[in-house]
Amino acid sequence: SNILHMQDVLNKLGLQAENKGTSTGKNFFGSGDSITSWSPVDGKTIGSVSTTTREEYEKVIATAKEAFQTWRVMPAPQRGEIVRQYGEILREYKEPLGKLVSYEMGKSYQEGLGEVQEMIDICDFAVGLSRQLYGLTIKSERPAHHMQEQWHPLGIVGIISAFNFPVAVWSWNTALAWVCGDVTIWKASEKTPLTAIACQNLFNKVAEANNLPEGISCIITGDYKVGEWMTQDKNVPLVSATGSIRMGKIVGTEVAKRLGKSILELGGNNSIIVTPDADLRMTTIGTVFGAVGTAGQRCTSTRRVIIHESIYDKVKDAIVKAYDQLSIGNPLDEKNHVGPLIDQDAVKAYQHALEKVVEEGGKLIVEGGVLEGEGYESGCYVKPAIAEAENHFEIVQHETFAPILYLMKYKTFEEAIALQNGVPQGLSSAIMTNSMREAHQFLSAAGSDCGIANVNIGTSGAEIGGAFGGEKETGGGRESGSDAWKAYMRRQTNTLNYSTDLPLAQGIKFDI
Ligand code: UN1
């Protein structure tokens, strides 16, 4: 019945069968080829969106540049007020937007709502932040001198986001960028273009009510080429990109070529270490949610479980038993735990990984497979699988965006940490333990090398209040909470002399 009401959802969010995918606010245009948005839930077409041409891109840049002139001098708390109103609209539209996220991307309705909740949370965070863009005062070595640092807006921030969190990741970036005084241009994933237009339509209600100029929130649509226009464009001082390592390497390199700034939040290869005195129930729930939630398509999804040999069989049995209870199907039906993968390419990558792990000597203990028949017409529904594997296997070193979990054993604590850290990625990590010593060792400088390290919690489901991102091939960028806002601003160091002399720093004498 949720599906039957999808037309209402589209109407509420201002979406049509054919949509223009370029926008500077209430102005929508776009004359490039159309992209079809296709739901992995039932394989049906939801609507189409026109792509952005180069000429139209230039128009967006010109409008955004113009908008920045007024937006950057509006007092930050007033910009915060705009973000507050956006958070209010999101509360009002939480259900339809959550439903569209679920239908267009394929995650469960609960998770679709959760994603909109993340948007609301980051808006609240940004509103508070708008009064806390603090700089420092610094003691000068010279008499009657004052030093300070202050933070100014950067300009146009380009946001490139992935299909798996089609709306939340944009909001982490944009809500911060807006209160910081930046204007934003969003290139959403071409797999989820409709949710992006829905977010823009909601922003337009706020923009209109407040007489804001065009260009504060912009969207562009298309494939990697459209993203490349931004990465190569000096008019875009910062590009924040969330997605695959392959994409991030290209974005990072292109932006670096012009010495621009980038924030990269890329793939993970997240593991849970399960120690001898771990709570078995918590371990099971944390692992299974982490591995099969969002059908394994979170960058924080649990990919590996590193289990102490003394409890290996017990933990393995509990996880396998939990997998028996999983129901796979339409994610809008709340009785299902696992929805579809995003598309058939993702299904192929899943199948390839399962073949590869066996080829490399792994053993499947929960067999995978693609589901067929009634309810599975899209061809995107797969069974969550578990393999016993070794960390050095090529496929284990690689992030497969699908519900595949690798189990491995450890003997010593040092070995567990080495396995956890022994992958190219460094996003999220967790330990299940009741030993204070192990917990602290895991969080120490010699412990987890990831951007996120959790104790007695799984690897996924971070709150917005912390900085989100990771090390190594995860890209090093941080989005969302803590002081991640600083990356969206430029720092300026000021020295003011209120004396009638001009003493030089370092005691240097220069007499004329
Ligand atoms: C992502 O998968 O790109 O921590 C983001 C989590 C979510 C965000 C994931 N809050 O799982």
UniProtKB/TrEMBL annotation:
Top-level taxon of the source organism: Bacteria
Keyword NAD: yes
Coiled-coil regions listed in the entry: none
Stored PANTHER family: ALPHA-AMINOADIPIC SEMIALDEHYDE DEHYDROGENASE
Subunit structure: Homotetramer.
Keywords recorded for this protein, A-Z: NAD, Oxidoreductase
GO terms of molecular function: aldehyde dehydrogenase (NAD+) activity
Similarity field: Belongs to the aldehyde dehydrogenase family.
Segments forming domain Aldehyde dehydrogenase: 33-493
Listed name of the protein: Aldehyde dehydrogenase family protein
InterPro entries in UniProt: Ald_DH/histidinol_DH, Ald_DH_C, Ald_DH_N, Aldehyde_DH_dom, ALDH7A1-like
